[in-house]
Amino acid sequence: MYIFVIVILSILVLFLFQFGLYLLIGYSSWHFAMSRKSKLKKGIELSSKLKRTDIEKEYFKDFEKLNIVTQDNLKLFGFYKNNNCDKLAIIVHGYGGSHFDMYNQTKLFERKDYDTLVVDLRAHGESEGDMLTMGKYESQDLLSWIDFMLSMKNYKIALYGISMGASSILLTISDKKAKNIILAIEDCGFDNANREFSYIFSKSKIKRKLIYNLFYSYTKKVKNIDLKQIDIAKSLKSCSKPILFIHGDKDNFVPTEMVFTLFDSVNEKNRELYIAKDATHGNAFEINPNLYRQRVYSFLNKYGM
């Protein structure tokens, strides 16, 4: 009887140890990648702030600050400029970014007299939220922004997004509930959240496969976010709207190959592709602004936008 109790207690202690280790590593890796205070995200935020100029800071002071409340009760902020146009560009930053990072892209649309709305995604910038969801809820938030803006004016809408913002707008344009969206322009978006994080974690030197498996399991079971189900390429198969895909050929954060998966998911009459030579992640505009502008404007003009 005594030995039996020892065995049972040993098994229980081992189980509790393994469960505790699972929670510790799962939480730590999730916190590193997907929380508002993520070290990965904070590093990108710091880099963006260091690059920010006084021109970019001053530019958005002329924008009206708007807000919506999400279904999960988060207050999100967007920055709106009315240029008295019936066309609206909704512009979405990437992972670790904010509306300040979208200065060049916002100017692109403003030069064509668009009204512009530049949003701060949940858990970014001035918007509330403790975690990001790689497009799962961000795409739904964008639907709410669209409804809000259409209550102001019957806009024809162009979506523009970069990095995680790009993947978010692709999920939005693929949603049957989306209204008045004419087209989308995405720059360096990922094709599947699981594939993207697998790639990021593959750069780690410490038991990367084990750590990733624990991260994936924790995110799915505890945070109720199945990264495999955030499948942008699959969602695009039901999309009939025109999309311009942009990606740098030297991207080492979202592999360039992902844009071809996205591109191939769309009917050939509704897609265009621009591979920016020598561009890394998110800097295709900076590498060749004239060519970038030309490709974007050509695409907009083609569809009467």
Number-wise, the strands total: 8
Low-pLDDT parts are: 12-22
Form type? globular
Average predicted local confidence, pLDDT: 89
Keywords summarizing the entry:
8 strands, alpha/beta, 305 residues
Give an overview in words.
With 305 residues, the chain is an alpha/beta fold. 45% of the residues lie in helices and 16% in strands. The chain contains 12 helices and 8 strands. The chain has helices at 2-34, 39-51, 54-59, 103-110, 138-150, 164-173, 193-201, 208-221, 232-236, 257-264, 284-287, 289-302; strands at residues 64-69, 75-81, 87-92, 115-119, 156-162, 181-187, 243-248, 271-276. The protein has an 8-stranded mixed beta sheet with strand order 1-2-4-3-5-6-7-8, sandwiched between helices. Helix 1 packs across helix 8. The radius of gyration is 21 Å and the shape is globular. The termini are far apart. 42% of the residues are buried.
List the helices and strands and how they pair.
Blueprint: H1 2-34, H2 39-51, H3 54-59, E1 64-69, E2 75-81, E3 87-92, H4 103-110, E4 115-119, H5 138-150, E5 156-162, H6 164-173, E6 181-187, H7 193-201, H8 208-221, H9 232-236, E7 243-248, H10 257-264, E8 271-276, H11 284-287, H12 289-302
Parallel strand pairs: 3-4, 3-5, 5-6, 6-7, 7-8
Antiparallel strand pairs: 1-2, 2-4
Helix pairs in contact: 1-8, 5-6, 7-8
